[in-house]
Amino acid sequence: MKNKNNLNVSSPAEKEKTSFMNDINDPIEAAMESRSEDKKHFSAFRRFKNKREENTTKYHKFNFFLMLIFPIFICCMAEINQGKYIKPFLNFAADRPTVLLFDFLLTGAVFAFLLGIFKKGWIAILVHSIIYMALSTTELFKYGTNGNHLILSDMKLLRSVKSLTSFAYIKITPRLLIYYAIVILFVLIALYFNPQIKASPMRRIAVCCGCLLPFAALVILPSFYNPVYKTFKLDTTSATNAFKLNEKFENNHFLAFLVQTASESYSNRIVVPEDYSEEYIDEIMDIPVDTDEDFNGGKKPNVIVIMSESYADFRAFDQLDIDEKYYKYFDEAISEGHGGTAITPTYASWTVRSEFELLFGLPVRGINTPNMPQRELADRAQPALAQYYKAWGYNTIYVHPFQSNFYSRSRIYGHFGFEKMIFHDDQAGISDFTVPVKHFGTYVDDSTVFDQIISEIKSSKKPIYLHTTTMQNHQPYNQGEDPDDEFTNYLTWLSHTNDGLNDFLAELKKIDEPTLVFFVGDHFPSLRGETSVYNQLGLTGANCDALYQQKYFFWSNYDADFSYIPDNEVSFFYIPYVILNIIDAPRDAFIEKMNDFMEKLPVYSNEYNSEIPRNEELDILTIDRVVMEEYSPSPIPEEELTTQD
């Protein structure tokens, strides 16, 4: 019988065939569906784009309002962000309205410049927001880390930002996220309403130039910026130390402070004196030279210069009542040798200032106290003290247990006469150390550095001159029993250095080689801005002298003549000549002249005492030796003395 319902029943073979065909068709259909989805997305994007283009003209008054208020908005947000809270900003606006008006006008000029470049308002708003919020956040973290405020010359360290983050206390707070969210919301509003300027390329170029030229004049032309700063009542007090600089910040706040200190920095650039000449240098060098020195009959001792990172004696402040145990072996070294006080050219940061003075025997004030003096040097062999020691038959060694490219040390210090440079880079996993590397806290243990020094002494067939700048005691100090007790953690770090120092000197006593050790901290430590012990002590620009006085000691494992060590305070840059006198090293006219300066002008530092007048001879000698032609006597062979512009 036939099937009256005419049912379409498939055989197993037909089902298999149908399934096979479906499998073949599915990818095609899927691809078609994907294209359909892409078209939908593209269509949505095109509709959004068309809507934005429509908004440009439809809401032109609102767009004009957006671009008008944006400079005020982003200026306020940057100031509020770096100050953490709204109340300090409102107090600033009430107390210093003219400075805030200066900030608004400056920000408006920056925004007009960006509009001239990008034409599209939302792009200019985005770029401007990134710049201002990034700068204000950097200021927030920098001050929170070391109590110093951001200046534009800090940007020279931008390439080392990864290293700098290891020093900083970086904390992302809900408040910070809210401030960023507000700025992002403004950018999104601008993106939607799409404000633009209608101007020809020539008019936009004219706008950019019109904004750029006044800004450049604010930095480089005193005849322009002095009356401007006076009109808006900016604090232009010369800031000769970090505390006075912070006091200026309190008056100018973030943006005005950045610009005014940029003007100040440019005005302090190195300018070669008009009377600089070979004849003038010869006139300065025309002094009798004592030629009797012969290393005490040819007995050349090893010379070890240890500049200990952030090592400082807080017993200078009686109100802190510091336990003597933290400095036990430092005090013992003084009792076995000889102690004194040296005036460091820096506080809390810029180690390379102190390093420059100890390596060159020259004042950073002679080149206007730049934050990074090594960046000011001529690109040639430099007459650092290592050059003298090398000429006298010493092995010359530089040891720094940190990255070789930080402060460009490996590149620049290669000109200083060091035959061997030893670095350690935890981030790259690279080390030049030949002894086991240990860590204490974040950085390489001072004991590792001391072990390397012992190794260098034992392995060298000649006497060595070794300079080391350590790292152990660098901030952050957040790894003790109480991570928030920064100062106690710091003292624990010092105590550990003392233990290593005791073992080091004990080991030197066993070595049958005369060795002279000089030990000093580069500066007082960086401590948090708002809660630091410095704030508790009530230190200001007028009473912070003690923070530039660094205790030091000389120690030897032989009968060294410590009578040459001055009883009075001397600047860091005189210490190399004290060492040369102790070891009875030969003198040239330059060394003789520096000994003469040490007697007549023992302290030459405007950071420590801004009332000390400039010394023309000392300044011009410094410029001659490290920046210009080096007409003064030099330990470097004549063929290497080629100065590049």
What does this protein look like?
The chain has 645 residues and is of the alpha/beta class. The chain contains 22 helices and 11 strands. The strands form 2 sheets. It has a 9-stranded mixed sheet with strand order 5-4-3-8-1-9-10-2-11. Helix 2 (60-83) packs across helix 4 (97-118) and helix 4 packs antiparallel against helix 8. The longest helix has 47 residues, at 12-58. Mean pLDDT is 90; it is low at 1-10.
How large, in whole angstroms, is the Cα Rg?
A: 32 Å
> What best-fitting shape do the alpha-carbon axes yield?
elongated
The helicity comes to 40-55%
The major sheet is characterized as: 9 strands, mixed
Integer average pLDDT: 90
Placed side by side, the strands forming the largest sheet appear as 5-4-3-8-1-9-10-2-11
Q: CA-to-CA gap between the ends? A: 111 Å
Number of β-strand runs: 11
* Oligomeric status: single chain
What structural class is derived from the secondary structure elements?
alpha/beta
**How large is the count of helical segments?**
22
- Ranges where pLDDT stays below 50 over 5 or more residues in a row are 1-10
Strand content: 5-15%
